[in-house]
């Protein structure tokens, strides 16, 4: 072990303990890293799917698909939409059906 | 202190294997990071907390490393910044200049009277002088690397180090004139 001028001498097992602590601190990184790497592709795919659905319905208005919405859909598998977002995603018939479902006893 | 070979880190990093590069970096420098951190925060557990935070930051930033310095320089800068942030979070109304702990509280610190006096003197220095002295005297880093680490000019650093060394010497000699026989820097 090299003598250090500051008097702080870390033995090999101390070094290994520090290594393990530091590696452990960043341990969740594979999942984080995978999510980080995949999220732009996932978001693009989610946004593209929503846009395609909208395009295939000529009567519907252009949906309000934002990056946040796409990310939310990707991350949680569900979407929380405002009234404006819902109306932009549904045509008149679908909206009336939804309202009927919601008001049904 | 001889420079460590960073080829394995560089090889893994340049091929996009950041897990491997990160492991090599930590394996090579964990003790150096600890020594840097504990000399600033002066407490073993606080130094460990700093290393954990620094570890997360290093991992996240590794893919964006620009390769403009050695990996160790870049990583040590992260450790220093994290240590200073930690210290300021703990003592929000104080700064490094007001710390008066004599020496690091660490199981790895092998204390003797001269080392106690040396750390006591160093810990009385203003922040910039203190960091400069630690990196130059204790770690024997070149001025160019310290300038890179602290974001300052080499000329300014040399002046800082000169002032710091004078103050340290004066403080130690005031404590015990017999230390003049052992002082060699």
What percent of residues of chain B adopt helix (DSSP H or I)?
55-70%
pLDDT < 50 runs, ≥5 residues of chain B: none
Gross morphology of chain B:
globular
What are the low-pLDDT stretches of chain A, counting only 5+ consecutive residues below 50?
A: none
Going by CATH, the architecture of the largest domain in chain B would be: Orthogonal Bundle
Please compute the radius of gyration of chain B using only Cα atoms. 17 Å
Going by CATH, what is the homologous superfamily of the largest domain in chain B? RNA polymerase sigma factor, region 2, helix turn helix motif
Q: Please give the largest β-sheet of chain A.
A: none
Distance between the termini of chain B: 16 Å
The number of helical elements of chain B comes to 8
Helix content of chain A: 55-70%
Q: Tell me what portion of residues of chain A adopts beta-strand conformation.
A: under 5%
**Rg estimate of chain A, integer Å:** 26 Å
Query: What string gives the helices and strands of chain A in order?
Result: HHHHH
Structural category of chain B: mainly alpha
Strand content of chain B: under 5%
Please describe the topology of this protein:
The complex is a heterodimer of chains A (105) and B (185).
Chain A: H1 12-25, H2 29-55, H3 67-76, H4 83-89, H5 92-103
Chain B: H1 7-14, H2 18-41, H3 44-61, H4 71-90, H5 113-122, H6 127-138, H7 143-150, H8 154-175
Helix pairs in contact in B: 1-2, 2-3, 2-4, 3-4, 4-7, 5-8, 6-8
């Amino acid at each position: 072990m090299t003598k250090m001028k500051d008097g702080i001498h870390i033995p090999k097992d101390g070094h290994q303990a520090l290594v393990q602590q530091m590696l452990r601190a960043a341990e969740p990184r594979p999942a984080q890293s995978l999510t980080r790497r995949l999220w732009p592709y996932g978001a693009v795919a989610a946004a593209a799917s929503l846009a395609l659905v909208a395009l295939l319905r000529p009567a519907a208005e252009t949906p309000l698909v934002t990056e946040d919405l796409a990310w939310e859909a990707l991350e949680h598998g569900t979407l929380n939409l405002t009234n404006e977002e819902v109306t932009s995603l549904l045509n008149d018939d679908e909206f009336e059906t939804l309202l009927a479902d919601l008001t049904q006893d | 202190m001889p420079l460590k070979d960073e080829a394995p880190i560089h090889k893994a990093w340049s091929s996009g294997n950041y897990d491997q590069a990160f492991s090599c970096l930590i394996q090579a420098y964990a003790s150096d990071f600890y020594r840097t951190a504990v000399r600033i925060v002066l407490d073993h557990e606080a130094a460990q907390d700093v290393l954990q935070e620094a570890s997360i930051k290093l991992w996240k930033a590794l893919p964006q490393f620009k390769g403009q310095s050695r990996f160790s320089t870049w990583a040590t800068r992260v450790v220093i910044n994290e240590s200073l942030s930690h210290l300021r979070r703990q003592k929000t109304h104080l700064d490094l200049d007001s710390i008066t702990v004599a020496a690091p509280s660490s199981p790895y610190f092998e204390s003797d009277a001269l080392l106690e006096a040396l750390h006591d003197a160093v810990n009385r220095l203003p922040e910039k002088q203190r960091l400069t002295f630690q990196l130059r005297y204790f770690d024997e880093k070149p001025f160019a690397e310290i300038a890179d680490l602290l974001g300052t000019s080499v000329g300014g650093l040399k002046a800082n180090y000169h002032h710091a060394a004078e103050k340290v010497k004066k403080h130690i000699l005031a404590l015990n004139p017999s230390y003049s026989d052992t002082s060699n820097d």
